[in-house]
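This part of the workshop introduces the protein records we will be handling. An example says more than a description, so a record of this kind follows:
>
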Amino acid sequence: MDKRSIKRFRCWLVESKQYVYDIQKICDGKLIKNFAEILNNPKKYVVEQETGAIDIAKNKIREGDIAKYRNANYQREVFEWQYGVVVFKNCGFELYNPIKDTAESLTDISISFSKIEVVGNIHENHELLEEK
């Protein structure tokens, strides 16, 4: 199997409020026998997938990440910073801005904008999505 096609997941442990990476292999210090048990227990685990995209600092972008990017409005010379949380919707990853109730395709942003940066995640830094 091509290594690029292998999807990796991280998991937010709701009770202990921490992330575990490569969740397919291990969780709570135990080898996972059935990944479906994790997926089917959202009150205890929030599973988030890698998108395949990277930010300007070469960080992997995952579901649940909060990212900022430049909104390239070509009618103006001013480029506004936009913030959004990475979500999987409509068969793809989007950056959703809950304040403006807008979403943009992560693929389009990655291609169109050279400045996309992960600045936090929805569990630990939700205040980044609040109106300023």
